[in-house]
Amino acid sequence: MSTLAIIGFVMVCVFMYLIMSKRLSAMNALILVPLLFGIGLGLAGMAPLGKLGSMVMDGIRKAAPTGIMIMFAILYFGTMIDAGLFDPLINKILKVTHGDPLKVIVGTALLAGIVSLDGDGATTYMIVTSAMLAVHKRIGINPIILPTVAIMQNGVMNILPWGGPTGRVMSALGLDASQVFVPMIPGMVVGTIWVMFWAYLLGMKERARLGTVTMAEAAAAQEYVVELDEDSAKLKRPHLFWANLGLTALLMAALVSDKFPLAVLFMVGTALALMINYPNLKTQQELIMKHGMNAIPTVSLVVSAGVLMGIMSGTKMVDAMANSLTSSIPASMGSHIALITALAGLPFDYFLSNDAFYFGIVPILAKTAANYGIGAAEIARASLIAQGCHLLSPLVASTYLLCGMSGVTLGDLTKSALLPSIGTSLVMLATALALGLFPI
């Protein structure tokens, strides 16, 4: 193993240690750790010190489109949730599911999928629990079931490019959503079907235990509405429902068609959504500030990752690391590295944070895979398979919010959701392999 490769692995280990031990935030570690190592390499004559700044800027330029896309996607879906685009469907779910444990549980999973479109797990858990927890308690459903189906469904939707992991891997490998996310959509559909099937099994078990509880339809239908405060109610635009639905459908169709960059689509979509729903400039500014608070943490991570990737690439550190890994993999296993990435991602992405996995490990695997003719996009898709069970990791902050609001412990949630969540990843893996998204 070369000296440069050893330094690279040490840098990754230092980065992972600092963020996992909470000695530095992920953003600070992404900026400071590679800079310090880059300066050290320059002083040792192993890298051009004078070009360190240009290396960083090259990395940031590659990461910027992903950061822009994430920011405007969060603004768009946040605006649509404020305007009430999803309210009729949410209230319909609540109305239809009254009294029947099976319908309530499946409806909870469906609701979690809808609300997860904004890419923020904490928001999803707050809305789902505030809408459905009282219904679950009134019927007497096992309290572990609501957080189980919510976290399973959010695990599928977490692959959305503005949800975090996909943005990280696109930034780390210099890819765009059309290369990584769009091919994963069929797997997300199959993963959602799996979650609904699991919710159905849980519902059948609870129906057999509880029967159907008589419950006022109106009371169930208004569980979501009563949670709205006065300010939120003022933002609702029910008279613009069809306009918002049409705009969202058009945006999704353009996304799948791959005719325009995702960043441009969401920039235009956000501008139109704000103008259509909130012509008042002050209200627009308030909403941008409100949802910008959700966007800033993820966007700052993506842009900061440009520092790490720029220095790793510019100093040829990542090449040396990949070469050392290549030499350690038996020739007979090299062509299977994408499948190895998908399977190894299950424990890696559970015990590591998304930042450590996607910024620290996946780029090395991608560079190694290139030596076997496997593209970075294929490794990126394989690495996302693990998202089916990542949210159960004790390193995910929003999971503690879900546990607290649902009144369950992380241990109980893990016992209930870990195996079926691994199942989510496996069915998504089977779908990806069937579609040839990466080689076996």
UniProtKB/TrEMBL annotation:
Annotated membrane topology: Multi-pass membrane protein
Any one GO MF annotation of this record: citrate transmembrane transporter activity
Source organism, top-level taxon: Bacteria
Localisation: Membrane
Presence of keyword Transmembrane helix: yes
Assigned keywords, A-Z: Membrane, Transmembrane, Transmembrane helix, Transport
TM helices/strands, residue ranges: 31-52, 64-85, 140-160, 180-201, 240-256, 262-281, 293-313, 391-411, 417-438
GO cellular component terms attached to this protein's record: membrane
Main location as per UniProt: membrane
InterPro entries: Cit_transptr-like_dom, Citrate_transporter
Domain Citrate transporter-like: 16-386
NCBIfam families: citMHS (TIGR00784)
Protein name listed in UniProt: Citrate/H+ symporter, CitMHS family
Provenance organism: Thermosinus carboxydivorans Nor1
